Amino acid sequence: MDNRLFATRVQPDVPSRLDGLFPQLAFDDAIKFTAGAPAENLFPTEAMKQAYLAAMAKEGPHTFQYHTVQGPTELRERLAERARTRMQIESATVDNIMLTAGGQQAIDLVAKLLLNPGDAMVVEAPTYVGALSAFDMYEPTYYEVELEADGLNTTQLEDTLKAHPEIKFLYTVADFHNPGGVTMSVAKRKRLVELANQYDFLILEDTPYRDLRYVGESLPTIKHFDTEDRVIFLSSFSKVMMPTLRLGWLVASPMIIKQLLKLKEAADLEVPNLTASAVNEFLANNSLDDHIKALNKEYRVRQQAMVAAIKREMPAGVTATEPEGGFFTWVTVPDFINTTDLLYNEATPNLHIAYVPSKNFYAYKNHTNGMRLNFTGLMPAEIDDGMHRLGQLLTEKLTKVTD
Ligand SMILES: Cc1ncc(COP(=O)(O)O)c(C=O)c1O
């Protein structure tokens, strides 16, 4: 059998966008700024163990039965309450929330809902690589809009919409962007909704990092400003609890939820009831907000170390975003430096540091002078040490050119 039998969407000769994203490092002592995963020592392991036991005790064998596509009502009620009080989504009710297999599945289902091959969509440049992996499968035409310090460039977005009125879908990570590290301003959130109304497209607002704010005040969600049911709001338990739960949840209009439920049913019928019930028990018997507070206290120390190290170590000509939360900062180096080559030829073999190079975070993989640095997976001393090494390497590169 040869590749001929595969659907075109698979593109068998093109590697997955996630390939090489977390390179296996030959050096155990390498300082890895690569992580996309939350810190394991902060997982609520014991509380979840109790929550699983409580879920099984409550429902007996019925726990293990098939349940509903949308997810258990009690959990959806809790999430609706959370959406109303913490995310300012006043329209959230038990009926317009659904559970998904992580945020990742929701991204896939929304793409499946909206995209025929060739359909036009907007992504931020850079954007979350896993979203691009999902979108790729529906063969869209991408239009990229640059990310600025206060979120996507809405002027450039409007120009793109004028030139391509067929655009029907926009994906954004407005809070503590992955990989950009930036947060969209309130003005841009409002503007985005206005543009969606004017140019007739839907927005997927993906917010897995939203609760992980270390400095400053939380901003209203884009969904909060939604006047025509054009925003699909997505959250996940992966970063604030644990990724293995594979539990995401979205809020959308009843009309959209109805279609997404058809797609969820076709894909995998429902989320595992044991997991959903255990998370429900966790929320009933613990304060998620207290847990998030504890996470933020710990992550804040690491964020502060990163912000200080950027100021101290990065040479002129190199810029970095200053994250107020989330997991990442984004570094831009001058054009002549290819960060993939730099990683494999110098940073890792010579200096024993690793980061994620920019290429795969761009829809057309044509951007080679950026890097994503994670700061939540490292202790402050490691951040200091790793950033010192990176600073020296970049200084050396820049000095060679100016000599
Ligand atoms: C922006 C963004 N969206 C979605 C996801 C998917 O997360 P999960 O499927 O674990 O909820 C991630 C994970 O890294 C992410 O960074």
From TrEMBL:
GO terms for biological process: alpha-amino acid metabolic process. Keywords: Aminotransferase, Pyridoxal phosphate, Transferase. InterPro entries: Aminotransferase_I/II_large, Class-I_PLP-dep_aminotransf, PyrdxlP-dep_Trfase, PyrdxlP-dep_Trfase_major, PyrdxlP-dep_Trfase_small. It holds the Pfam family Aminotran_1_2. Its cofactor is pyridoxal 5'-phosphate. GO terms for molecular function: pyridoxal phosphate binding; transaminase activity. Residues 30-390 form the Aminotransferase class I/classII large domain. Belongs to the class-I pyridoxal-phosphate-dependent aminotransferase family. Homodimer. This is Aminotransferase.
